[in-house]
Write a structure and sequence with these properties.
heterodimer, A: 119 residues, mainly beta, Rieske Iron-sulfur Protein, 1 helix, disordered N terminus, B: 827 residues, alpha/beta, FAD/NAD(P)-binding domain, Arc Repressor Mutant, subunit A, 6 domains, five-stranded parallel β-sheet, 26 helices, 37 strands, elongated, disordered C terminus
Amino acid sequence: MESLTVEQKNITWFKACNIGDIPENGGACVKYKDRQIAIFNFTRRDKWFATQNLCPHRFQMALSFGMIGEKKGEPKVACPFHKKTFSLETGKCMDDEQYVIKTYPVKAEEGAIFIGIEF
Amino acid sequence: MVGHKFCEKLLAKDSRQEFQITVFGEESRRAYDRVHLTEYFSGKSAEDLSLAAHNWYESNNINLYLEDAVIEIDKFKRKIKSAKGKEFTYDYLVLATGSAPFVPTVPGTDKYGVFVYRTIDDLELITSYAYKAKKAAVIGGGLLGLEAAKAMIDLDLETHVVEFAPRLMPRQLDESGSEFLKFKLEHLGIHVHLNKNTSAISGKEKVEELEFKDNSRLEVDMVVISTGIKPRDELAKECGLRLGPRGGIIVNNRLQTADPCIYAIGECALFEGKVYGLVAPGYEMADVVASQLTGTDKEFSDFDMSTKLKLLGVDVASFGDALAMENECKTVVFEDRVWGIYKRLNVSTDGKYLLGGILVGDASSYNTLLQTYKNGILLPKNPEDILMKSGTSGGKTNEGCGISALPDAAMICSCEGVSKGAICSTVKEYGIADLEGVKKITKAGTGCGGCVPMVKDIINETLRELGKKVKTVICEHFEYNRQELFDLIKVHGIKTFDEVLDTFGKGAGCEVCKPAMASILASAWNDSILKQPTIQDTNDRFLANIQKGGSYSVVPRVAGGEITPDKLIVIGQVAKKYNLYCKITGGQRIDMFGAHLHQLPYIWEELIEAGFESGHAYGKSIRTVKSCVGSSWCRYGLHDSVGFAIEIENRYKGLRSPHKLKSAVSGCVRECAEAQSKDFGLIATEKGWNLFVCGNGGTKPQHAQLLASDVDEKECLKMIDRFLMFYIKTAEPLMRTATWLNKLEGGMDYLKDVIVNDSLGIGEKLEQEMQLLIDTYQCEWKEVVNSPELRKRFTHFINSDEPDPTIQFKEERGQKFPEDWNIAVAS
């Protein structure tokens, strides 16, 4: 319990958008200060994910427009540029070990999407 | 190299970490790759050639002393002393001192400009001297000498090779082989002098001339001596170990010297009267000693000295008993003087077994032949068949000597000692299905790389044995191929991806099946792709091609390449207003680059207002129908190619297909529109049109083939309707028409039968299906521009109106360009 409260203290929940703003089984990009964050509405699993929008392969702000899907049960997003795929859970690139993207905690409450930003 | 390999092997085998390793090296560098030394001249750095990272020794707890040679061995106290005065005791001592170049006793070898070719230091000396030189001679036409000659060519020097023997590579090649190689080398600008016994290297201080026994001379500025190697056995000699009469530390089959605690491996060792001057036997020796020390009783035995190498792009290989005498064997010889290919096989007198052979100019069958020889595989009835076939490439196996004929014990990678069995079991037990994975686990193919094609073939063969790849399925979410899914979707009247997935698939889909289904659904019903934006491929989601840097490009349709001045002006105005880079495309239209996502609806609004419509440059769909000027203007033109091109382009515009489709119409046989390189193309004849299909440019260009000749325009359209629909329904995802035809059983004859003769009786149905698509065409951009709801999608952020701030442009030649890929600097 102790650790849980500490963790919660360190996260600020930022209201990113309304649930209806993100297409079903797709993504969109939100701006938070100078960051670009990709939010994914994984409707088929009734889950939300958030990651950095930048694809580390060729440094393109593009992941939010990528197709989402799964590989052997692991949810993933494919970058629209060269189809590098990243796990939405761990951020690890699934076809090239050297890349990893940041993932953010997400929650849907009262019709809105909140993204957890750590301090 | 061999000393380093020994460290690697001992670390790997010493599971109980009983050994503490200390390495002394005379050179200032860590162990490096001497096999690829010449690459130093073609741009590789000393660091690139290193065999281990600088922290490798430390992280493996190895003490490394560089620039500090061992100068004294005390066998009795088991002690060594180094040049810098360090003293160490040892339990075991491994001598991997290698060899030094053998320099013949000829006057003048001490002159400036005379070099040997062995270490990186030698190369540095050669390089710095070469600046002042124009002509270089390499003394020695053996394997190393020719490597050195390649280096001279890389240094832009006029290069001469001087060989004492009557042929090049005398240990590996016979006279004909040498003759073919000489011809090839001379073609590359290397002057080859055979039968030349150098008597002196003359010059005042620096070398100016080579003098030969036959009184001839050769003017040169520098000389590289590469006449062989002599084992570095000084140290062994001094401490009283037994040496061979011409040098080399004598070892037994455990590689022990006269003192059982001292081993010798690599080029300094003399085993059964032979010094092994190649890397593979050296590695094997390292493995033997590491095994001995860790308690496995492995022995060294006579090692196969077969070699394959590429000298200045020329394949040279020799294996087994390459130089067998005529009376000891029967020979099969193949000579092709047009392409400079020479092959010789030595076959046992009973014709059953391969004893050895030589390949010059084309060594693609080397691996197969080597294995046939090594494993004593029975030869096919006509051994010459093996020579005529091109080895193992493309997964084809030769009768009697293919991959499947090899026993599991066959050594495939001799650098790393990996057998066929080891590769097969990696595939079978670990479920590894690709080369990279097999390399990682077995290390096969990581040395010289020569066995890579063979490793690939073994992987594929094993997969085939396992019954893999029997069926091509779209991806892990669908157990069907595209054609089956197309039929299922049609028959069941399915309209959405979710429905297909629920009915015929499993899981959540992926970036492979989503766009494949999107394409099928569009080809089946022609519903707007805007209805399911998240299953569309990148470019289809925003109806524009995403370009480097994150901006988009805009291509309006210009059917047949015909455009009015007014429309040109509109394109100019729009491009100017939104600051877009303009380029004429290969398909006779204009591409405008550099638009921000949010600008797209505004740009298209203006274009549509002026009468343009989407060019579908973003889709896997019909792109353009290119045309030549045709009979209206051209004095050679037979028919109106522009008019017909426009009609065709408008007929099929918006048609979605497994891959992009390109077309062209030429008004006469001169073929200015290049119709024969298109998915479908037309060329005017006196009597009508010739229809060609299934051509494409791209990575593997292929000419289109004639489907029908002298047909009228109506008949043409009917054929094209059928052809396109048949392709759309039966091709795999992302398969162009050329590949589709190549894989179509029965090929062009079958296609003609189906399309022209309607042998399947589906002609009318195909036409009807096409007519449905033509009748339901709509311009996607018009739909977006007119819908406030759809327009909202075109924004980078959903919580801000600003464009993506990371998109940046620079200016060149008066237009804007995206900034270069922002690649992170990774070590």
